[in-house]
């Protein structure tokens, strides 16, 4: 029997538990609950969201034997609470999610429990269609998300393009005297795309190296110091794409700062197209699953940053998974998947907060009242000066022309590109061995989510 | 010297005063203040509105002798405060008002003091271009407007079409130890259009008749009981227009109710095109001013109710003043100007509130906790069942075809229309003498505003 982390444990039969509720009972309750709440919402007439709607909590009791409102089920009695139903209905509408699709994806198909779910003690489920992540959150996180909703509404209305998590619903399963709060949000890293390397980046250097234990994983999530060492030249984006990414990060950071949120990260997954081609050649069988298009709006990385009016001309790739086209210092073609995560957790643990104080002091912040601003500034600087690099327009074609078809075509322009980088004072690290390369043989379908 | 009403008075030289500040000094301070605040805003970079922005108050001191930030002036020293500058900049943008135009209209041209400004004790100014109304508000009203801003933001984002007042700015002039708070909003009734009759309607019958004193005025504002007596058949709107008006009123009432606002009215101005033609024939000279188009978006009655996607085909009139085409029971062609006013005042005076309690009890409300909902329901019912009437589609042409040109063409369809009404059980009051007709010879350019 494995060690319990936070509220997450494993029972004698080997099944994951959360606050002693088995994962299967939790999934069952979530599916019954969401079916009911979405169903009853569709019966209510459409109306505008009001300020008060953010504070509403609907509750419905699901007795084991069923009631005139709820079906019988084979779990224990439970209560299902829906937070701010009208507000989240509006958010889902804004993200282009139809009630039927939402209900179908979450409730009519199997929820897949993610095994590699990190040190937060949360359980993560992925919907079968790869669209939604369900995550358990703590009381403080749920409470904070509720407080955040008016600001989240304002941001969405001004900024449909955002790298912030897309929150589709906040619920609570009350069973056996325990409250299990869950949040439904977008899936950042499409399972069907093999991530060759993944990073969780904050812009800090304080203890920001993946642990030895993390490195043992099939798909470790590396951190800032790893990135600085292994990808010292960052990710090359064409001019428009660079501007779009950085503008989005800037606007998102302003909102986070205004809510005094810190400790968030960018989750960054990199699919290396050229490496994938080499692997396909060397491996016995390629992955039979093809990259799938995501259905909701603005939920992929590229949609999240690309302004509606911007003409991205040459960057329209055949890639339907929403990766952002980039190159590494070797000139290899990459698809980059990004999103801002961990925006609720700074309100979770005093211990966590203490860590982030230490980190900020370590990184030069001396005036604690300015912390969120300092955090945001440093985060933006790191992302836009180090992680993402702008390639000037006249050389853009080097970056993009091979995305016209995401195929295993030969890499004719690598040499030009490398020369370009040399002449522009950028040092490609072609010869330097990297930790990342050690992890080339990654298993897909393992995501780490820490919202 | 005339009697003081509230804070408004008249000094020995005959000039209006507000809290002992002369109207000319107040206008001067407003113009200097708005010039400064709009000017300094344009220097700040564009950014998203945050929840905190609603609570910001900027303040700048204008010493008589000038400073390095402010020009010298010939009034006493004063302080100028701007409430929620970033939020109001966003609202103005949403309403399509450019900073330059806003500043120019309010600060570079004369502000016209409206003489007929009602019993509220407020001073009203109209900008020379007829676009803006400036009104003094009490502390409680300003405070309430600030609280309303997040909900107002939400409403605007979901509902650009609204009959609620368009709030463009909230300011405070601090002079001689007094605070004079002013709000800038849209002008509902274009001065260039002669209103043949005006109503302030609440849906109540309690003391809702214009006073004898009001009736002496050149352009009295009649009330509910007057409307019920003199316009018992209401205003005929074509089907789409009726639906648009009522849907807008319904959504606006939902917001007002959610903020527990009561006591608001619809200000309704009616320009009778056929009557205007007859007057033009009989009068020596027609008004040389032509109806002007308003510049800001959604600020006219027709824009406020007409959905962006709705095809209003035949209703596109040459009228640029934004009146809603309607007919009275005689079949005369009308342009109706409406807006919801008085949304801040229920928070003003205990005495006022007491009155509205009495009115609600009189009108059948016994449970005071339901008051805002009761008020809203009754208001909607009165507007959509009594004031505005739907004319069915097959007869729509009767209502609209003569709006193709707002001209003094002959009224060929009146007979048909009257017949239609008879056959549909509607009683045209062609022969009944009305109080309204007594006031046919109205002077233009006199508006009453009670927000």
From TrEMBL, chains A, B:
Residue ranges constituting the PIPK domain according to the UniProt record: 22-387
InterPro entries: PInositol-4-P-4/5-kinase_C_sf, PInositol-4-P-4/5-kinase_core, PInositol-4-P-5-kinase_N, PInositol-4/5-P-5/4-kinase
Keywords of the record: ATP-binding, Cytoplasm, Kinase, Nucleotide-binding, Transferase
Classification via Gene3D superfamilies: 2-Layer Sandwich, Phosphatidylinositol Phosphate Kinase II Beta
Cellular component aspect of the GO annotation: cytoplasm; plasma membrane
GO biological process: phosphatidylinositol phosphate biosynthetic process
Main location class: cytoplasm
Intracellular or extracellular location(s): Cytoplasm
Keyword Cytoplasm applies: yes
Pfam families the UniProt entry points to: PIP5K
Transmembrane portions of the chain: none
GO molecular function, one term: 1-phosphatidylinositol-4-phosphate 5-kinase activity
Stretches of the chain forming a coiled coil according to its record: none
Transcription regulation found in the keyword field: no
Signal peptide residue numbers: none
PANTHER family, alphabetized: PHOSPHATIDYLINOSITOL 4-PHOSPHATE 5-KINASE TYPE-1 ALPHA (PTHR23086:SF54), PHOSPHATIDYLINOSITOL-4-PHOSPHATE 5-KINASE (PTHR23086)
Record protein name field: Phosphatidylinositol 4-phosphate 5-kinase type-1 alpha-like
Designated gene of the protein: LOC114472175
């Amino acid at each position: 029997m494995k060690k319990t982390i936070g509220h997450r444990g494993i029972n004698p039969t080997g099944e994951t538990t959360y606050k002693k509720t088995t994962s299967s009972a939790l999934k069952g309750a979530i599916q019954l609950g969401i079916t009911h709440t979405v169903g009853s919402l569709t019966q209510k007439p459409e109306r505008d969201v009001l300020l008060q709607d953010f504070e509403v909590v609907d509750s419905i009791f699901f007795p084991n034997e069923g009631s005139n409102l709820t079906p019988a089920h084979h779990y224990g009695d439970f209560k299902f609470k829906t937070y701010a139903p009208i507000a989240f209905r509006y958010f889902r509408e804004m993200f282009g999610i139809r009630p039927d699709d939402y209900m179908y994806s979450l409730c009519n198909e199997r929820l897949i429990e993610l095994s590699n779910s990190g040190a937060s003690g949360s359980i993560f489920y992925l919907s079968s269609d790869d669209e939604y992540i369900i995550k358990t959150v703590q009381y403080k996180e749920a409470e904070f998300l509720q407080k955040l909703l008016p600001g989240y509404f304002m941001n969405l209305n001004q900024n449909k393009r955002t790298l912030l998590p897309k929150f589709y619903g906040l619920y609570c399963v009350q069973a056996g005297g325990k409250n299990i709060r869950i949040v439904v949000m977008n899936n950042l890293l499409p399972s069907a795309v093999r991530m060759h390397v993944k990073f969780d980046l904050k812009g800090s250097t304080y203890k920001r190296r993946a642990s030895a234990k993390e490195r043992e994983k099939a798909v470790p999530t590396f951190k800032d110091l790893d990135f600085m060492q292994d990808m010292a030249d960052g990710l090359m984006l064409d001019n428009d794409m660079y501007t779009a990414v950085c503008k989005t990060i800037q606007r998102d950071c302003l909102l986070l700062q205004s809510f005094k949120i810190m400790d968030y990260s960018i989750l960054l997954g990199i699919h290396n197209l050229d490496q994938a081609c080499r692997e396909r050649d060397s491996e016995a069988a390629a992955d039979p699953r093809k990259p799938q298009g995501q259905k909701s709006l603005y939920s992929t990385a590229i949609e999240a940053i690309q302004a509606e009016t911007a003409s991205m001309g040459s960057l329209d790739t055949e890639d339907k998974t929403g990766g952002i086209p980039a190159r590494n210092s070797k000139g290899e073609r990459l698809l980059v998947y990004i999103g801002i995560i961990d925006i609720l957790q700074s309100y979770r643990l005093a211990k966590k907060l203490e860590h982030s104080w230490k980190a900020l002091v370590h990184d030069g912040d001396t005036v604690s009242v300015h912390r969120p601003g300092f955090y945001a500034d440093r985060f933006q600087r790191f992302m836009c000066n180090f992680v993402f690099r702008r390639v000037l327009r006249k050389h853009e074609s080097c970056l993009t022309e091979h995305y016209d078809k995401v195929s295993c075509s030969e890499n004719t322009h690598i040499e030009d590109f490398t020369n370009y980088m040399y002449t522009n004072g950028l040092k490609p690290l072609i010869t330097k061995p990297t930790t990342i390369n050690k992890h080339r043989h990654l298993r897909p379908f393992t995501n780490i989510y820490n919202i």
